[in-house]
């Protein structure tokens, strides 16, 4: 487990710590055309983004970013497939930005539940057998899964918090979905053996 990151308060004007983030958004150049973008790192004083429409150094940019909102500034340098820009903000807004960035960076490092912790995959053979607490078995379809859980479509829904086996994997029913339910695996699975374990009969 990595240590949480602490960004310096806005008092440290000279150099803000850049944190790696993956934020999607859109931005507008002086010619008023809008483009999608992905921010790859950011501090309360500046950011770097991957962007299809690249302006010139000194151009004003207005961006709307997921989790952050509106930021504006000027292009400071051109990078591969994008550019870096300043973030113009009042000291109060910078403090707020520092707090948002700290939260976003720590969320990625500490695997906070706000985000799916692992990539979801769809198994090649999605049909599996679910063994319920009373020992009865039913066929189900795996909508998608990760090393920590799976989304399941089935004719009936086991009780919330009940313990079941998906193939050989002990799991807990944690959430109802529109077309089924979500399972959390009791033990995180290895990617290489995940599919064999959940589809074992």
Characterise this structure.
The chain has 201 residues and is mainly beta. 14% of the residues lie in helices and 43% in strands. It has helices at 91-110, 191-199; strands at residues 19-28, 34-43, 46-50, 60-65, 69-79, 82-86, 127-131, 137-146, 149-153, 163-166, 169-177, 180-185. It has a 6-stranded antiparallel β-barrel with strand order 1-2-3-6-5-4. Strand 11 (169-177) and strand 12 (180-185) form a beta hairpin. The radius of gyration is 23 Å and the shape is elongated. Mean pLDDT is 84; it is low at 9-14.
Instruction: Give the C-alpha Rg.
Output: 23 Å
- SS content category: mainly beta
Q: Could you give the count of β-strands?
A: 12
Q: What proportion strand? A: 35-45%
Number of helices: 2
Helix content: 10-25%
SSE arrangement, N to C? EEEEEEHEEEEEEH
Major pleated sheet: 6 strands, antiparallel, barrel
Mean pLDDT: 84
Unreliable parts: 9-14
Q: How would you name the oligomeric state of the polypeptide chains in this document?
A: single chain
The spatial strand order of the largest sheet comes to 1-2-3-6-5-4
Morphology call: elongated
- The end-to-end span amounts to 35 Å
